[in-house]
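Hi R.,

Here's the input for the glyoxylic acid complex you asked about:
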Amino acid sequence: MAEDRPILALGSAAFAISEYAAVLKRYQIDTIPLTGLTNNAGVTKAVADAVATRTASGKASYVAFIWFFGTSQFSPFDENMLSSLTQNGCRFFSGGGAGYDDVSTEWMTSEGAYYCNTPTAITVSTANGALMLILAATRPLIQGDMYTKAGKWRGDASIPAGLIPYGEDIEGMTLGIIGLGSIGKALAVRAQACGMKIIYNNRRRILESEENGATYVSMDDLLATSDVISVNCPLTESTRHLLGRTEFSKMKTGVFIVNTARGAIIDEEALVEALRSGKVSRVGLDVVEHEPKIHPGLLDPSLSYRVTLQPHTTGRTTQAFYKGELQIIKSVDEFMRGERPEYAVNDPKI
Ligand SMILES: O=CC(=O)O
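And here is the predicted structure with glyoxylic acid in place:
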């Protein structure tokens, strides 16, 4: 066990239990238990305390810090939280998740530290989740659920939303995927199996051999011709509010919108307006702009029966989190062996 190169962990593996037990034998790992931690300030203090305890006892400082899934409520993982680590020689960070918009990777690069995400762990679960929300939106799943539980069966003229409408079959519909990364590609395969035609837009066209049957179109063409639009790109400064008033105005009337990426890629005010006007028929959202706060318009009884909401859980399956924990372990091992971790998203000068 490398006593001179200790690792700090926030929480512990919950799925790759035996594999992580082996890691605990290979390296000196101190664990910050999640019990009692509720927010960013609590984690920031726990990290600083762990570093201070090592320094005070004259022991070697942490070279790596890892956090598992289910810790996003502690974000941002930034300089404020982590500088006590980098100031004492920490050069590796890894957290559970494909997206890392809540991790200050530029700052980590400037500190000479790697950041490794778990890039493919949630591909299958999120692609399945996106398909689930496409079906939930095109069939009035949530309305049927609400009516049935309220004892209203298929509804009647006495309730504002009236009779439950007919669902729409996705066979023959055009699905516009914004962001044909690993999740978008996996969704393309699934949606084609249901008879959908797939078009996509990315910052730039990808190799035809990797398009999985999807056709590259301009953003304007995607907006104008899609029956269903699925958001699958990362949140960056250039994708924030990528879908706003102007973009909704270019869409087909009655379009279905699904977002399993990040809430802030859609301007929620504009989405609520588009739902109200009927431009957007129904939506399936796994993510919202200000999680966990929900825009009141989406909860308004005059709209909520056309809105399927999930609490950012479509990626969250036992298989996905198992894979993700294995990816964190792989990255730690590579770093500890002195290699560049395969899943590093940045390129620090080491
Ligand atoms: O949203 C989940 C993730 O980015 O892993």
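One thing worth noting: DSSP finds twelve helices and twelve strands in the chain.

Cheers,
M.
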